[in-house]
Amino acid sequence: MDPQQRRRYADKAKFRLTAEQSDEIRSRGKCDVCGETGGPKELAIDHDHSCCPTQKTCGKCIRGLLCYHCNLILGHSKDSPELLKALADYLERSAK
């Protein structure tokens, strides 16, 4: 199985995406937040964990494509907009 077929198979198992949906999302080729192309780490499909708290999803709560670092930040923030805004405010206050 070639890498693209393997990725499609994994996306179907984890995100319930068709091959076409997987190809469409991954064809963006860059992080939806910072624009990074992924570098040594592959871009990750992100889903809303409040909808599907486990690794597998219903397939309807796909949010986008994230690089390793943005995915890590989002995960560590526990998807909290309030925490992420507070961190941005902190950085702005301390940048003088």
Using brief descriptors, characterize the structure shown.
mainly alpha, His-Me finger endonuclease fold, two-stranded antiparallel sheet, 96 residues
The geometry reads as globular
Q: Within the CATH hierarchy, at the fold level, what is the topology? A: His-Me finger endonuclease fold
For the sheet with most strands, the description reads:
2 strands, antiparallel
The count of β-strands is: 2
CATH homology group: His-Me finger endonucleases
Could you characterize what this model shows?
- This protein has 96 residues and is mainly α.
- It has helices spanning 3-15, 19-26, 68-76, 81-94; strands spanning 44-47, 62-66.
- It has one domain (3-94): 3-Layer(aba) Sandwich (His-Me finger endonuclease fold), CATH 3.40.1800.10.
- 46% of the residues lie in helices and 9% in strands.
- 16% of the residues are buried.
